[in-house]
């Protein structure tokens, strides 16, 4: 028996002209947690999809336990003992835990026997790996952390010895993530091998034994975790030195620029997403809204920026009301000094099929400087785009290039350039660095702090707690649509984590 | 990985792929001809010869193409704003009222160049009116334009039957049509244009509305890529959420775009009414509105693609009639089959050959990486 769980030799994969994986070699030792880290688009997901049989490699060999295997589809992967926990769970929401676990692994057409067998097996797995979950609970009623546990159980039920976890902590609160790490530790102690994909350096340092770094489709380095550092890994990922800490001076809060009072917003199904939220935002400060994704932050931003109608409440911009419950017009709000970098740049902030210059005027297309009567002044638009490209170092520096062909970081810079260059009084930013490479994160953070230092009011929403803590002058925590607490930026991660999980909030509300 | 298809150079994207699709469509059509027991090569010869063999044939081909340019543009304009206007047929039909009214009113007293502008305004206005209601219903009530425009086609059809049998028909006539227009209601032929190439237009009704169609194509290009409204339309078409974020008035744009689309469809009525028959007959549109959908699809909703696509369909119409005439075992329905195949391969199965062509480019690209990068 080989002590290698998985060996990849010379894996190569192209999608048309895109060379996603170039001659990848990777060795994962049995009974270890092996991290794979890299920026978005570095080829991590492609590599794992090849290993799990979603794609076929153009060339190269896969060895599992020392034997060469062909993995032509996920079933073949499962038979080789490879299980995968996807970033977006593959669970049937209105099935029970038990039904989900046995789905696709039933013994016969008659379910009863399979169910009782599965129940026994599930109990055994739960006990062996300390993964308690009620087998008869419906998935939709379980919190995200437990749903993820069901995914892990699914893989174990199929006798997986090697578990691939793709960005598993993206949807978890910090306490849930800690719990996941403990589970992974136990699985390792039981002899399982775990491949852990992430772009968060801290997680790599916390739980992995070895770490491999990918950059632009290549495997650039593999290190023992204890012999490396966050700085070295970041440098390997980006290919140059990066500043991970944000330098910023004291805030100098001035007049109230944005006042939100008792704002309530429902989504299209009538579910209350923002529940009676009030806060103020002053000139020269950054207020961060922390919370696990889906706790009303998105709807809050949309209501303030006039995209989504609120049910009740008032919002004052520079002391004048915004008609949030009626006909707030995003275009009008822009001219009143409110700029908005939306969370979803692919569907909201940009039109991916437009070229860079066309996206540079989105939302400002009524501005006289871009128009000749009813005609677009293409020269002015082009010149404007070129200037922003220079100022924000957008690459490649081609205003005629289709926006979809820019990297995530550069797309975000296109949005930021458009929204920041007007010198708005209030800037609201959702997920400024989601899907953005480390190099661009540094640049974006600097710009946000510059805005603050110029006396602008910045409202920041992010699911990255590190980002919130690094940038904010005040932190508001949202849970289930309500503001459950306000903290200084020096609040510990544990304290904020409990608030985000709604624990502390309930206590405070009860007092 | 969000885009599994490789990015191809522009010439392959807009030239090679449509060409491959077209060739396959004709190959399959050839098989059908073979099944009927005829020689596909002979059919192809009659098709090409019938469409381009003589000045007169070319005149007919371009006459049909004129009609399809208008309806193709109509569909394309709506398509850029994310609206699928299936109602060009009905809008063109109703547009005929505008043409007929202008002609019936002034044909005896005014020359064609006075009547023509009025007829242009009339046809566009009536077509736009017929598209306004579905547009308004979509904007204010959320009734889907695909449904409402189809229903409006039927309403238009019934309305025209009523008008042509009761109101616009001259007394004592049995035919459901207006009276024949005098000289002022007849558009001059473009015989001089063909004679530049040494061709004789003969009996073909190739008339000045062809020039209007080319003008409209240029106008549509300006509208979509050079005006603020076009910018808003495209934003809405690509991403309604981005349009909302940018503060664009979705309802207003929907209504305006539908009216422009309907107006372009209405212009189509000039060609058969003032250019060929010199009277408005029952059912003069003859499905051109639906062909417009195929033309817009094939032309990628770009005027520069719509014009050749319209000429291609003009060729199918004219050449197809010739096949039916020369080869009795092939009926006119054959043309419908070929059209269907073109639509199938150029529209519905647009991406069928793309992966293979993409792979070809990738292999080529790996061997000559520099050239490939420049191409991309």
TrEMBL record, chain A:
It comes from the Bacteria. Pfam families: ABC_tran. Gene3D superfamilies: P-loop containing nucleotide triphosphate hydrolases. InterPro entries: AAA+_ATPase, ABC_carbohydrate_import_ATPase, ABC_transporter-like_ATP-bd, ABC_transporter-like_CS, P-loop_NTPase. GO terms for molecular function: ATP binding. The keyword Nucleotide-binding applies. Keywords: ATP-binding, Nucleotide-binding. SUPFAM superfamilies: P-loop containing nucleoside triphosphate hydrolases (SSF52540). Signal peptide: none annotated. CDD domains: ABC_Carb_Monos_I (cd03216), ABC_Carb_Monos_II (cd03215). Residues 6-241, 258-505 form the ABC transporter domain. Belongs to the ABC transporter superfamily. This is ABC transporter ATP-binding protein.
Automatic annotation (TrEMBL), chain B:
InterPro entries: ABC_transp_permease. It comes from the Bacteria. This is ABC transporter permease. Its main location: membrane. Coiled coil: none annotated. Keywords: Cell membrane, Membrane, Transmembrane, Transmembrane helix. It comes from Rhizobium herbae. The chain crosses the membrane at residues 12-37, 57-79, 113-133, 145-164, 204-224, 253-274, 280-299, 306-324, 330-349. It is found in: Cell membrane. It is a multi-pass membrane protein.
